[in-house]
């Protein structure tokens, strides 16, 4: 049977999201449960994929099916496409499987031309409406389909408003709008070189193609990469008959949530604008009214809307985000979806739904996007400092969090400043989808215009970035990069602090403090821990980090990078002496100075971990990373070593490597300088013995990890003197301490020969940063230079250093487990690369049977939740 590319809303349902996209599937579902939905049909995501396969053309087969469905739509609505007397006007709306708010383009009032407008203007007795529809259509079609650019049309509107001495679009009358439509068409012709299309079918195909094409626009690509949405999914297209919110004062359009998307509080939340259409509410052309005010103006529609909200929430068992239009007092539902929400709101809603009996604990855990938790783990304003500070202005608390940084005025500046390490707050009149990368680069976003559902607010909430929107007290001068607030002029680079929960704006810097897990966050994490089977450890080098990670739920240290302990000034001197030694004796003398410091560090770590496992990795980086580069430091070292400066310089020069990441590092250091590994062994074992003595009830069992092993003999060689040294210490202390010696699997050869290596290793820890680097054959420090080109060319969709490459690197991991485990049934396995805190990578680790993931302290809750979701 031939593939079916089109579905009437009445033919689909909510489960067909893959084929119909989220919007289409939900329009179908709403139709099925009897809600008032303007009827239409959905062109499937497969048609989009086919469009790309056919070199960005709609093939005749699909074209024919679309035409067939237009006829069906005409029958359902009793209107005819392109008919003068009774024209069918439609919207053409994109809708991917996962909602991508504001990322794709919509066209309204399609099907209009000069003749049709004149007729409906006369027939309806409402020429203002007719011309408003037409000018909007030309505007959107030119922008979305022909890519003329919004700004030309907005300028024409501004000119018209100035000429008429009015402030708002609604104050323009039919004549003005007609003149605007003509100006728009002239603008179109001057930019495109041909007349604006009059044939509705031609308009429709153009619009459908534009939606397909928008799947590949740069902002959609950025959004997808941030949200793990595969490029291969494609978008569906919805063709829907219009409901008109712009026919007069008994009409309007709105957006609403069934619960507050910022806090999660139960209750209708949203905005409504009379005599308006489409994006007017979110684009901030006028300040909309709070949804509750709708009750006075539209009592019946409001009552019905309330009922619909309840129906939808009960049906989807989740907070809904809805779009609707009122046409002459009658309600039409245009969209519903599970609403995007802040992390705080997500936790509250999930807990409330459990308490309301709508969801199970498992479902509640599954509802939270782990990536979202990040925002809750970021610093909040210090409560004391905040109390003492006086806000100089207030906007809407559109996306919670605390942001403090230097003011920038454009998205490009935000990106550029961020790249050179500056923290910035982006201040804009309003944001648009083009600003998305700049928004991402900002600590926070402050806008002059726009409500809680404005672009800035929605996108910021999605990204978990703090946002204060609609502070109309700001007198903005974007062109000159300055604004005035509370009588003070602010310039680019000035410090500002904004509170995304209260909407308060502060002059200067307000200090921030770390977040904690409590309340609903704690409840959800408790449930997550109940359901997950994989352990979560942390990568921590200092007792402070380890404590933080413990607070956030870490069950051990999966990776302690010992070299990080060497950088403080007192230690680096001793370490440099060690590096610049000529003889074993000299080296041992220098190491003897370091040993007690290391031992103290390890004792503090064991204390912080309270008997939970601690994996300590032996020295890993190439030695040249530690040598001095400043002349004064070199001289000091020469003096300490009692050697000529030239000798020291010669040693430094000799440490130079062409490719240090593949050079003299990892266990190769232990092979060439066994005394380093011996010193580290002593420090680890002595520390453990001491802590065990002080806390007999704790399990203190050191896990010594040898990095960068690629051959069984190499591990055996190093392990031999590690074990000898350790056993000697244990014996001397008369202790019964047990310990393990394991290895990192971070070189492909280690994975390939894991059956041999497992004979000597008590555990494997996948160092996926190096394993990725070595498997791909490119350096993680240099990949940034070319990865963007790879994204643009669709060779890679993600940064393999952020998201585990399951097909390649993942296959090596699986192979290592399959080879290693049978040889050594006691072998325990974990991961300690950056991937240990990435939700999809965590899911993969669970699937292949790792015992634990280890990630940076602030990612621990994310990993706990992701591990639970993987297990559910
Ligand atoms: P987005 O995915 O960016 O929200 P939509 O496809 O939902 O884009 O369209 C944007 C807005 O256009 C909707 O919120 C709605 O107000 C308006 N709209 C879309 N289709 C119709 C329609 N058939 N009748 C009236 N308004 C519509
Ligand atoms: Mg929408
Ligand atoms: Mg490594």
Automatic annotation (TrEMBL):
Residues that, per the record, bind Mg(2+): 746, 770
Transferase found in the keyword field: yes
Enzyme nomenclature, EC number: 2.7.9.1
Gene3D superfamilies to which the protein is assigned, alphabetical: 1.20.80.30, ATP-grasp fold, A domain, ATP-grasp fold, B domain, Phosphoenolpyruvate-binding domains, Phosphohistidine domain, Pyruvate Phosphate Dikinase, domain 2
Source organism (scientific name): Hominimerdicola aceti
Annotated keywords: ATP-binding, Kinase, Magnesium, Metal-binding, Nucleotide-binding, Pyruvate, Transferase
Pfam families per record: PEP-utilizers (PF00391), PEP-utilizers_C (PF02896), PPDK_N (PF01326)
Name of the encoding gene: ppdK
Residues that bind substrate: 561, 617, 746, 767-770
Cofactor: Mg(2+)
Chemical reaction(s) catalysed: pyruvate + phosphate + ATP = phosphoenolpyruvate + AMP + diphosphate + H(+)
Similarity comment: Belongs to the PEP-utilizing enzyme family.
GO molecular function: ATP binding; kinase activity; metal ion binding; pyruvate, phosphate dikinase activity
Protein name per Swiss-Prot or TrEMBL: Pyruvate, phosphate dikinase
Record: active site: 455, 832
The organism's place on the tree of life at top rank: Bacteria
Domain PEP-utilising enzyme mobile residue range list: 422-503
Start and end residues of each PEP-utilising enzyme C-terminal domain: 520-870
Domain Pyruvate phosphate dikinase AMP/ATP-binding: 61-291, 302-352
């Amino acid at each position: 049977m031939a593939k079916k590319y089109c579905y009437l809303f009445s033919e689909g349902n909510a489960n067909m999201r893959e084929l119909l996209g989220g919007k289409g599937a939900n329009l179908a579902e709403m139709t099925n449960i009897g809600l008032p939905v303007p009827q239409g049909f959905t062109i499937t995501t497969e048609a989009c994929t086919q469009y790309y396969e056919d070199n960005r053309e709609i093939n005749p087969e699909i074209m024919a099916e679309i035409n067939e469905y237009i006829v069906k739509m005409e029958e359902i609505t009793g209107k005819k496409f392109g008919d003068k007397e009774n024209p069918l006007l439609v919207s053409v709306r994109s809708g991917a499987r996962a909602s991508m708010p504001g990322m794709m383009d919509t066209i309204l009032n399609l099907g209009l031309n000069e003749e049709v407008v004149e007729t409906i203007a006369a027939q309806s007795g409402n020429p203002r409406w007719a011309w408003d529809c037409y000018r909007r259509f030309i505007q959107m079609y030119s922008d979305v389909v022909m890519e003329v650019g919004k700004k030309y049309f907005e300028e024409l509107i501004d000119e018209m408003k100035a000429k008429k001495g009015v402030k708002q679009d609604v104050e323009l009358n039919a004549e003005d709008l007609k003149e605007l439509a003509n100006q728009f068409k002239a603008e179109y012709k001057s930019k495109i070189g041909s007349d604006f299309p009059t044939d509705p079918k031609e308009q429709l195909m153009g619009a459908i193609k534009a939606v397909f094409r928008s799947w590949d626009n740069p902002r959609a690509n950025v959004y997808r990469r941030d949200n793990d949405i595969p490029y291969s999914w494609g978008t569906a297209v919805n063709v829907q008959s219009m409901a008109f919110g712009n026919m007069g004062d008994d009409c309007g359009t709105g957006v609403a949530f069934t619960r507050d998307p910022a806090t999660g509080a139960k209750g209708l939340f949203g905005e409504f604008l009379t005599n308006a259409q489409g994006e007017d509410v979110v684009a901030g052309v006028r300040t909309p009214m709070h949804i509750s005010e709708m009750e006075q103006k539209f009592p019946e529609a409001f009552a019905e809307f309330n009922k619909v909200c309840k129906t939808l929430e009960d049906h989807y068992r989740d907070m809904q985000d809805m779009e609707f239009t009122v046409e002459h007092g009658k309600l039409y539902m245009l969209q519903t979806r599970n609403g995007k929400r802040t992390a705080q709101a997500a936790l509250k809603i999930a807990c409330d739904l459990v308490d309301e009996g709508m969801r199970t604990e498992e479902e509640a855990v599954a509802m939270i996007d782990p990536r979202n938790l990040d925002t809750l783990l970021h610093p909040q304003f210090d409560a004391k400092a905040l109390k003492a500070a006086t806000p100089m202005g207030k906007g809407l608390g559109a996306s919670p969090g605390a942001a403090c940084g230097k003011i920038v005025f454009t998205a490009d500046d935000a990106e550029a400043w961020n790249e050179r390490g500056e923290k910035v707050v982006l201040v804009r009149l309003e944001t648009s989808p083009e600003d998305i990368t700049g928004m991402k680069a900002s600590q926070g976003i402050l806008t002059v215009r726009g409500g809680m559902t404005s672009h800035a607010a929605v996108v910021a909430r999605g990204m978990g970035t703090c946002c204060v929107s609609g502070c109309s007290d700001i007198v903005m001068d974007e062109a000159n990069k300055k604004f005035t607030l509370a009588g003070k002029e602010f310039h680019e680079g000035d410090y500002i602090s904004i509170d995304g929960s209260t909407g308060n704006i502060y002059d200067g810097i307000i200090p921030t403090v770390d977040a904690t897990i409590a309340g609903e966050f704690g409840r959800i994490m408790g449930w997550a821990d109940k359901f997950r089977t994989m352990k979560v450890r942390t990568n921590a080098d200092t007792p402070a980090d380890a404590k933080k990670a413990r607070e956030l739920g870490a069950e051990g240290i999966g990776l302690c990078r010992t070299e990080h302990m060497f950088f403080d000034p007192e230690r680096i001197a001793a370490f440099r002496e060690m590096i610049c030694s000529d003889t074993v004796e000299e080296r041992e003398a220098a190491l003897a100075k370091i040993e007690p410091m290391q031992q103290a560090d390890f004792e503090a770590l064991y204390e912080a971990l309270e008997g939970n496992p601690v994996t300590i990795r032996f020295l890993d980086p190439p030695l040249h990373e530690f040598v001095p580069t400043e002349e004064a430091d070199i001289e000091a070292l020469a003096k300490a070593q009692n050697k000529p400066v030239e000798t020291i310089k010669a040693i430094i020069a000799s440490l130079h490597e062409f490719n240090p990441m593949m050079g003299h590092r990892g266990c190769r250091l232990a092979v060439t300088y066994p005394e380093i590994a011996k010193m580290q062994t002593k420090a680890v074992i002595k520390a453990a013995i001491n802590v065990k003595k002080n806390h007999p009830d704790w399990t203190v069992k050191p896990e010594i990890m040898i990095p960068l092993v690629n051959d069984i003999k190499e591990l055996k060689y190093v392990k031999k003197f590690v074990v000898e040294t350790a056993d000697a210490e244990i014996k001397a202390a008369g202790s019964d301490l047990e310990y393990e010696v394991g290895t990192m699997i971070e070189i492909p050869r280690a994975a390939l020969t894991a059956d041999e290596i497992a004979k000597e290793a008590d555990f494997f820890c996948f160092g996926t940063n190096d394993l990725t680097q070595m498997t791909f054959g490119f350096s993680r420090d240099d990949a940034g230079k070319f990865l963007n080109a790879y994204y643009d060319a669709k060779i890679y969709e993600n940064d393999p250093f952020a998201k585990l490459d399951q097909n390649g690197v993942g296959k090596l991991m699986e192979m290592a487990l399959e080879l290693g485990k049978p040889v050594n049934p006691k072998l325990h396995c974990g991961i300690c690369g950056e991937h240990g805190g990435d939700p999809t990578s965590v899911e993969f680790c669970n699937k292949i049977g790792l015992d634990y993931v280890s990630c940076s302290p602030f990612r621990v809750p994310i990993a706990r939740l992701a591990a639970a979701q993987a297990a559910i």
